[in-house]
Amino acid sequence: MRIRTLGAATLASLFVAAACGGTAAPSAAPSVAASAAASAAATQAAPGEIKIGAVLPLTGPFNASGKYFQQGYELATKEVNDKGGLDVGGKKYTIKLSVLDDGSNGTKSRSLVEQLVTQDKVTALLGGYDTSLVEAQQAVPDQYKIPMVEGGGAASAIFTRGNKYLFGTLATVDILGANTMDFLKYWIDQGKLPKPLTIALTWENTDHGKDYEGAVQKAAKDHPDYFKVLLDQSFELNASDFTALLTQVKAANADAFLSDAHLPDFITMHKQYLQMGLKHKFVSYGARGPDQKGREALGAGADYLVAGVWWTPAQPDKGSQDFTAKWKAAYKVTPDWFQALGYETARVLYAGITKAGALDGTKIRDALSSLTFTGSILPGGTISFDATGKPKTEYVFTQNLPGANNPVQLVWPKNVDGYKDAIMPLPSK
Fold first, then answer.
1. Nearest to residue 344, comparing CAs of 383, 370, 397?
2. Is the CB of residue 97 less than 8 Å from the CB of residue 9?
3. When you count CB atoms within 10 A of the terminal residue's CB, does the N or C end of the chain come out lower?
4. Which pTM does this prediction carry?
5. How much of the chain exceeds pLDDT 90, in percent?
């Protein structure tokens, strides 16, 4: 188990190191006695300090995305501490952020969240990354009446289980699927895609994937003159070979290929898609495509893919541009939505604690339930929640363009600032 406890001084040193293009150097391993003493000392927050906990996949299949969320949490925390701490009822508190590594394992993830609550006595929680891991964690906040804000799980099922202490910042994947079909319907109407559009659909066998599949099938049922699904096939997470699945996609001979996949599976699947010489008039992997890791792995093979995302550095608003510049200065990379959602998720939690004016879990929960967080960098500029904790947030769609520095273009909705028409159908190579 990897544990990171970050106070103001540690965060400051980490940020300075990151600004120089590196990361903070690990210290020597402490002795068993020192570790025990540190653990005992960490049980209670110091005077004037708030303990916030998070469990993320810092190793295992989801490690890249988990580390992005960790960086987002740390940056938001550092910004609060640099301003003297978080205002709670007129008193300033330093935030002490503790991050544990679940190794991308759901059973371990739930256990570590419970550890943060029962042993480390955290005031509030920041959620994990990946729908399956957030679903493993989600019972703990209600059990102990400790609020959690999460930005890494987007399945609508998360918000159907009666939880009162869990809040999300990611617009759910059923909305992503529906928006994708609206986008396609527009381009069919423009004569750029055939009518009806035949579709080969694949989706990860999770609540996340079921949301996407359900939305696509609903659109096909509601608009049979526009859409015809020729293949509807699920796949398991973290596979190493999608050849059999893609053989079915090829045999379907569809106009469009739609797939809901997490980042590692997207990279593997699209590599094999290209190797098999597959071509479609439209290709989308749900929320994947503009990710920097994906574009590095796929090169020109990722050009022209369309994705629905929760944030993009292509957004021209000042908040997004300032965040992008700040991130590049600190980490020497362009941020993806993962980093932005980690950052905004932490900012929302801290705004809820300030609004509560107290460190009581139920009061923070009540404050979050009625919070309208303005000045957000997410599309639409605000974050709020319905009665189930489900976020009232939006998607924007991007299309990858060829060229240096992996450019992307905002292509949906039409009223989004910076909109330009997508290149449709996708160019044949």
1. 383
2. no
3. C
4. 0.88
5. 88
The structure tokens listed for 225 are 């003159």
CA distance 381 to 370: 17
The CATH code that applies to domain 3-171+317-383 is 3.40.50.2300
CA distance 11 to 73: 11
Residue with tokens 């008193």: 91
Q: What are phi and psi of 110, to 5 degrees?
A: -65, -45
Tell me which CATH code domain 173-309+396-412 carries: 3.40.50.2300
Residues, the chain, total?
429
**CATH 3.40.50.2300 domain locations along the chain:** 3-171+317-383, 173-309+396-412
Q: Which of 13-22, 342-351, 407-416 has the lowest mean pLDDT?
A: 13-22
Q: Which two tokens stand for residue 400?
A: 């990858």
Q: Hunting for tokens 């008039």 — which residue is that?
A: 281
* Tokens matching residue 121: 């006595």
Alpha helices (runs of H) in 223-291, residue ranges in sequence order: 243-252, 263-275
Q: Is 89 exposed, middle or buried (0-12, 13-18, 19+ CB in 10 A)?
A: exposed
Contact of 2 with 101, CB cutoff 8 Å: yes
Q: What are phi and psi of 63, to 5 degrees?
A: -65, -40
Question: Does the pLDDT at position 41 exceed 50?
Answer: no
Which tokens in the block code for residue 428? Answer: 């044949």
| Nearest in space to 114 (alpha carbons), one of 182, 61, 72, 53 | 53
- Which token pair is 276? 């098999």
pLDDT band at 428 (very low <50, low <70, confident <90, very high): confident
Neighbours of 41 (CB within 10 A): 9
Q: Dihedrals φ, ψ of 338, to 5°? A: -55, -50
Mean pLDDT across 158-172: 98
In a 13 Å sphere around the CA of 148, the CA atoms on its Cβ side amount to 33
Mean pLDDT, residues 68-87 taken together: 98
Alpha helix (H) residue ranges in 60-162: 63-82, 106-118, 131-137, 139-144
